[in-house]
Design a protein that fits this description.
The chain is 46% helix and 8% strand. It has 603 residues and is of the alpha/beta class. Among the domains are: 111 residues, no CATH class; 73 residues, no CATH class; 87 residues, no CATH class.
Length: 603
């Protein structure tokens, strides 16, 4: 049996804590999900929580240079063990209403071979035949993949107790990679946020990333990319080191949750089209580089078995959109992230945040500047972390104590980087503003920009502690959350079964009938992004800005023309819906042309 007859979707990483233990809730049902490896201290707390809850021994991993990697390995091994135990229990449960194995099959897509065989088993009157089918069904199921994610640029250097910088393998992302590589997991690691050459070089040192005697990979490399060029560059870089990319995961630049890495106006449809048209070219190119690199390492592989998958995520909201992506572009799986924030049995979301997310509309979900990394960050208005931030500013105590230091990056005031959301950095920056500015309006504008940053290390971590009733006396209990724009069209707090039924079109959880098509929504977000950039430039547009705006606009117009031709191919939608998509694209085209003409007039 192959996994292609199982689920057609996966659950991407959500923040730090929201999906950090998602495999323990969904993997037994054959659903793959992704955990963040940012916070090893959180994983250690959760390992203690789960082991003690099960009455099993817990041995604390104390602070040391090696602790981060060791904690991650221990947590991942625990998750793997518990998932396998859950799955064995599921396999051995009875085929009766409400049982775990019944839930497994009920949630499968209706046209999968397993689901068809399951329904055949339900409808037979022959007891012997039914028993044989049940035994066959049990043998052919599998649990979901327990995947992990590393943001490549979150790779802070660390220091020993004497203040001496440790070698690069102790950097945050390096140690997280080591933690995964040394674990017992047979799954994938997803690298996001761009290429980190030193980190990619470190992968070479771990044997599990190389093919075994059957030309299979115990641990697979997945690269999250925004376009084909990025896939080509990163794939070639790794291939030269004898490392194979098993999957390129395409994410919409703006129609997604978390940090948003906007393209230069390249839209999801044309990006997927390029991957579709150049699939064989990319495979040939990577093989030509990879195979000689393996020979140098004296590792053999069956070249015929080398392939890669393309997956996609960001803004998918209804089953017909998923089916179109699967059929038309040939993607292997579709990611559903933000909607799962309204599924408490899967995600760690505190009650206050859950209710705010449920009630959120389009204006409540926005692209913010709150991230200390200086990257646009999708956020929810009125989240408890923002409330805490505002209160601290009003009380004359802006900033965070910065207890975790995962996002330190600024060296303006110190050889050791500071987090731009920290009390230390913000106080220094405010003092500098007071010293250098006399214009009150400009000071206020710059002041607001400085104090707008929030501690995502705490805000994105604490939900798992709150939901699991784990005390954290030295940490703030205020929550940051990072939903994508697509969540605005959902309001029902759902069960896992309901969300899966929605994904496969068996029920409809969309509560706003005016939700735009995935491609229309993304185009609108990119035009909003362009408008904001131009507004920030004001009337004085530099030559560099003009070049960027021209490229951005040209790419958007090219994407619009692509969609106009492609709409008729969306057979998964009705004629009425296709006409609505066309009207939406054309209206946005007029808006873009109006913006561009204004820019030309200013110029």
């Amino acid at each position: 049996m192959t996994k292609s007859i199982g689920h057609k979707f996966h659950i991407p990483v959500l923040g730090v804590a929201f999906s950090v233990d998602a495999p323990l809730k969904v993997a037994k049902y054959g659903i793959s999900s992704v955990m963040s490896l940012v916070d090893d201290t959180l994983m250690e707390r959760l390992r203690q929580h789960y082991l003690e809850k099960l009455g099993r021994p817990y041995i604390k991993i104390g602070d040391s240079n090696e602790a981060r990697a060791q904690r991650i390995t221990a947590y991942l091994n625990m998750v793997k063990q518990l998932v396998e135990e859950q799955f064995e229990e599921l396999k051995n449960s009875s085929f009766e209403t409400g049982s775990e194995i019944t839930k497994y099959f009920e949630m499968l897509p209706d046209l999968s071979d397993l689901k068809i065989k399951y329904n055949k088993m339900l409808n037979t009157d022959d007891e012997h035949f039914r028993e044989n089918l049940q035994n066959e069904l049990r043998k052919n199921i599998y649990h979901g993949s327990i995947d992990v994610n590393i943001m490549t640029k979150v790779d802070k250097a660390n220091y020993n107790s004497e203040g001496v910088q440790l070698p690069s393998e102790f950097n945050d992302a390096h140690a997280a990679l080591c933690g995964f590589a040394m674990s017992d997991l047979e799954s994938s690691i997803i690298f996001s946020a761009g290429m980190n050459p030193k980190l990619y070089g470190y992968i070479e040192t771990f044997k599990d990333f190389y093919p075994n005697e059957k030309s299979n990979f115990k641990k697979k490399i997945v690269i999250k990319v925004s376009d084909y060029r990025s896939a080509l560059i990163q794939g070639k870089f790794l291939a030269k080191k004898g490392l194979w990319v098993s999957e390129f995961r395409i994410e919409s630049g703006l129609n997604c949750g978390g940090h948003a890495f906007a393209t230069d106006g390249l839209l999801l449809g044309p990006i997927l089209e390029e991957f579709k048209n150049k699939k064989d070219d990319l495979l040939k190119t990577l093989k030509e580089i990879y195979l000689p690199a393996l020979i140098k390492k004296e590792i053999s592989v069956d070249a015929e078995k080398l392939n890669y998958d393309v997956t996609v995520q960001g803004g998918v909201g209804i089953s017909s959109e998923q089916e179109f992506l699967l059929r038309y572009y040939g993607v292997k799986s579709v990611g559903w992230g933000s909607p799962f924030l309204l599924v408490p049995e899967v995600m760690n979301v505190d009650d206050y945040t859950l209710q705010k997310l449920s009630a959120a509309g389009e204006d409540d979900l926005y692209l913010s500047d709150i991230s200390p990394l200086g990257i646009p960050f999708n956020s929810l208005r009125g989240n408890s972390k923002d409330i805490e931030k505002i209160e601290r500013v009003e009380n004359g105590k802006p900033g965070s104590p910065c207890p975790k230091k995962f996002l330190v990056s600024n060296k303006d005031y110190s050889d050791k980087p500071l987090c731009t959301a920290s009390i230390t950095y913000i106080n220094k920056k405010i003092a500098e503003l007071k010293e250098n500015y006399t214009n009150e309006d400009k000071y206020k504008k710059d002041f607001d920009k400085v104090v707008n940053k929030v501690c995502l290390c705490e805000g994105l971590t604490v939900p798992a502690l709150i939901v699991n009733n784990i005390p954290s006396p030295k940490l703030s209990r205020s929550v940051s959350v990072c939903p994508g724009p697509n969540l605005a069209y959902y309001s029902k707090i759902a069960t896992l079964h309901e969300m899966v039924d929605h994904i496969y079109g068996r029920i409809n959880l969309i509560t706003h009938s005016d939700r735009p098509n995935i491609f229309v929504k993304e185009l609108g977000l990119y035009i909003d992004y362009l408008q904001k950039k131009m507004d920030e430039s004001g009337s004085e547009i530099s030559a560099k800005d003009e070049e960027f705006y021209n490229l951005f606009t040209a790419n958007l117009l090219e994407g619009i023309n692509y969609y106009k031709k492609m709409i008729s191919d969306i057979s998964e939608e009705s004629e009425t819906t296709r006409e609505k998509i066309k009207e939406g694209i054309e209206a946005l085209e007029q808006r873009l042309l109006a913006i561009f003409s204004i820019a030309v007039e200013i110029d």
